[in-house]
Amino acid sequence: MAHESVPLLWHFPISHFNEKVRWALDYKQIPHRRVALGVSYLPRAWLATRQGKLPILFLEGKAIFDSTRILEALERFKPDPPLYPRVASERARAVELENYLDEELGDAVRSAIVGPGFEAHPEDTIRVLSVGMSNGTRRAMQIALPVFRRYYNSRHRINSATIVKGREEISRALDRLRTEVQPSGYLAGEHFSIADLTAAAMLAPLCGPPELEYPAPEPLAESFARLRDELAGEPMFDWVRRMYARHRGRSAEVKSA
Description:
4-stranded mixed beta sheet; 4 strands; 6% strand; Glutaredoxin; alpha+beta; Glutathione S-transferase Yfyf (Class Pi), Chain A, domain 2
């Protein structure tokens, strides 16, 4: 599988970290195949990479995990159009923002959405987490709900404290991003970069841009809908929608016959 000529992405469709990688593949128009993994993802991921998280990209005979490492590999594989600024100072700014957004905002968004959902609306939360997967996978996740919920929360350190912290971190990140946008409209220099892609992908679940390929299903779980309503007037969400409208483009996925 890892030696296929067409890059292969193992992904979790609803995940914003996975959206970051899909966006990079599509932005660079790299033909690739996708396989959505459900409850079986942990052993498969471990066998491929000796770690248990998605996304995993099979590229040029190598299994690469972690969205940041995958984007670095894609930039080497196809440098144009670039996602890393050419100017050293702008590149450093983009990389620093990407790391901050991955480590702080990404986890915060997941905790703020999934945590309350699993507490109050577990069935609806499974419906969200299984977006883009087969009906059989969705049923398996529903059957395994008690175990899956405990594992998911433990894996991502989701608890009552991190749910509250996640909401606070989202607010702090939004405050920071409003000040980081440059006169160009981008976060690092004059052009779209990994900083903009990462920020928009991490925030996409909260504002639902039309170009989002795997949106949360309607009707939203009550806790998720309430969070979206609380943030509905956020100015950065208009920026996210502009980034999606300008740069999300068409999918480069090669559909299986």
